[in-house]
Amino acid sequence: MKPMDVFEAIAWVLAGILFINSLRGLSSQETARRGNGFGVVGMALAIGAILISGRTDHLGALIGALAIGATVGGVMAQRVAMTSMPEMVAILHSFVGLAAVLVGFAAYLDSAGEGGGAALGIEIWLDVLIGSITFTGSIMAFLKLRGSVSGRPLLLPGRHAFNLIAFSSSLALCVPFVMATGTEGLPYLIVMSVLAGVLGVHLVAAIGGADMPVVVSMLNSYSGWTASAAGFMLKNNLLIITGALVGSSGAILSIIMCRAMNRSIWNVIFGGFGAEPPKSSGNAPAAPVGDVIATSIDELAEELANAKQVVIVPGYGMAVARAQHAVKQLVDLLNKRGILTRFAIHPVAGRLPGHMNVLLAEASVSYDIVLEMDEINGDLPQTDVVLVVGANDIVNPAAQTDTSSPIYGMPVLEVWHAKRTVVLKRSRGVGYAGVDNPLFVLPGTRMLFADAKVGMEQLVAKLSA
Amino acid sequence: MRIAVVREALATDPLPLETRVAATPDSIKRLIALGFEVSVESGAGEAANFPDSQYVDAGATIAADARENYAAADVLLKVRPLRERPDLGADEVDLLRDGATVLGFFYPGRNTELLERARAKKLTVLAMECVPRISRAQKMDALSSQANIAGYRAVLEAANRYGSFFTGQMTAAGKVPPAKVLVIGAGVAGLAALGAAKGLGAIIRSFDTRAAVREQIESMGGEFLEVTFKEDGDGGGGYAKEMSPAFLEAEYALFRKQAKEVDIVITTALIPNKPAPKLWFKDMVELMKPGSVIVDMAAESGGNCDVTVANEVVVHNGVIVLGFTDLAGRLPTTASNLYGQNLVHLLTDMGGAKGWKVDFDDEVVRGATVTHEGEITWPPPVKPAAAPAPAAPKPAAAPAPVVAAPVAPPAPTKSKGHGHGGGGPKVHLGSARSAPLTWLSIVALALSYFLLQNAAPDATGLHLFAQQLTIFALSCFVGWQVVWNVAPALHTPLMSVTNAISGIIVVGGMLHLSGDLSRPAALLALAAVLFATINIGGGFMVTRRMLKMFHR
Q1: What is the dihedral of CA B402, A439, A458, A453, to 10 degrees?
Q2: Window 277-296 of A, Cβ < 8 Å to B
Q3: What ipTM was predicted for this assembly?
Q4: Considering its fold, how many domains does chain A have in total?
Q5: Is the Cβ pair B495, A216 closer than 8 Å?
Q6: B396 pLDDT exceeds 50?
């Protein structure tokens, strides 16, 4: 080994350990910022080692590309609104996918003269396959999250057959690709990456809006695996390690999200949940009987003012209406009156794992009063008023009682145990899972039909008057 | 449509006077929102502390002429059944126009003559005590709303007459034991009484023949008294049925034992269509300590206690027995408010002023309507198995006074197995991974990285692949260990930071950026570097931004 190689190897090991520590740091709020710092240092070390090692002949072009990329990324990061965080994360995933595809092609073109053998061929092929799926899937997810494409699942007839054919023909194309000599395999690689791209779009298109947290974390996982595949391809251990870290991180997030929805991961990957016709028309779930009881801002303000304990359950509706600052003002007012006010966060509230936490943090809500589902469910029976802001499926009692409900078995926030539940909602529509919510017609529930932000602001005005 | 609200009590009435009123300023605002016009007889809300001026502020008009108020009404809201108005020289039935609608308590079972006159006048009468006891109708269930108030007041009346604290105290002068309160019948009134007594600091116990209420009693912090005899007394509709003689014997034995211990007894037992069951006999009263208090909430239906006299305070052997029948009316403001809301909900159910309809397909309206279009529509046809057991339609003829002992509203969708700490799926199964294990695996990873690298630096083919696979597997393991510890609140920052880290693919691009820059491979590599760096920059920056916002 040349001295430079040793230096590089040490730098990369250090980078790998720093990345691990970066993820470790995120285990709690106190260490999270340090964790991010570790990541930055690790990345600087990895890149710096290559720059110094003199492997590249085009230092100027390289530094230029790095500078442009970092600037573009930095500006995006500064400009993005916290409510648009899901889109931001999705589009960043697509860049990793794209980069992996580009690297795959570059590696193939470079290796053509050297003849890396079947193993290299397979590795390139794997890298490009996962990269393409990640790239187009993330773009589709980005468009869905932005609302440019409908959040409703696109369910083509025979979609499973389509997926199977697309995937197996991608597999089949591997054979002539590996057999080809020189760069003759290029057409196969291109056809395959297009096929994989279509597959990526289709997989995400078939997934409904409420499943987006899972999809985003799946894509997060894919982006890791694709980096790992690139590491195999380039015989680069740092890429393998880092990719594997990110891949398993995304996989764990997906598992957490799936558990929180009581869904199998396969169901989410292959889509179609919530749009299946009822299994038998004979015992179709009975629509909840009864009427909703509407309430008014005045009445709600009075109920809140008389409460001792209040819990606020935010959902995607709060994000859409950008109501988090108004909610924060409400919490401040209530706390000033000595009313214990806390937040209850369902693991899949919003469109991104942890989405609600970020929005509340943006509104400067202290994370000490932001509790997880398991922490707060036991306190709900002692709660005087639960205010549900733009959430639906995550507070649906049918998940516990109605075995025919598509969301049966999903853990939910048991808000109906509270003395009074007030649901702030734009209309009496169904949630993204397309399921009726019997909560709305329970006798202890009141509905406040309003835009989350407008409603909250009126409430704040009323309470501060 | 015009709604009329009238005085419920006249100074000439026998005591106790009705203090409640069928509409309050609050409920009138809602009635107006439903499209009704409301006119209120002057002084109607006085006893409930609602002066005329508040009604005017709420949007009602004060009727200039009391007779005209009746005649012009499409809907009359009442508390008490229709009655004579000696001050107007006529009966309310005759003061109304033909075909008008009346909402209020009516008791058709014992007011058969009144029922016939209402029919002849073609009135549509909805009797509030006949609203079926189904979940959907809970918001219109006036019996429950009033029983709740009565139960609370019963405890206050008892405390008022009782010669000691309710709560136990340790004072410098000596110890005062807490009062022991026994509530018989844990319906709405009974549970309200238990809650109020608990709030005052008493030791609370309750007896009920229905085993299902045990949980509710215990949830109030009360002790559920049991007899050693198995028989469930659930008679449907929230009432208890009459029990077998053997059971009753066991029950009485229990009461005699309790009589010697407790300081306060509150009885709420009612059986639909029958006089209230006697269950607290004279000898039990005599077993009690002097100064103890009995509140007989069934006094209007004959009383649960032998010595009760309706509307009177009896002292028997030093034990004070209260037979008040107007307990809810002793909290007139709240009783009127809740009753007024019950009426608003029923009127909403009937479509308000715009969609007004006496819809016999609506189970609630059908159940409550006792006369309609010149027909007596009571009792309503029995609907077979309309609802689950605890919510079966109440026998409409219940002679239940306001202080009924119905069961508490059926606790909606309470499922044990899924609840807190129960069998529900857990979300954070793998959260508590030990830190030493994590460090161990990190060290193992670093070691194997070096060992493999140095053992076979020029490995190729399968050998190299095996090395890479080892590193890959170890990394997955480390990642798995580390990420389970991440707080759910930090899931978004975790994603953005892993996003940035997966930008490490930039290394792949950099390694291929060699040779002639115009080569397609080099251009592709340069593009890859560009895109990957966007990721790195964007990911770290946005994570930083987010984490800065998190604060205590």
Answers
A1: 180
A2: 289-291, 293
A3: 0.83
A4: 3
A5: yes
A6: no
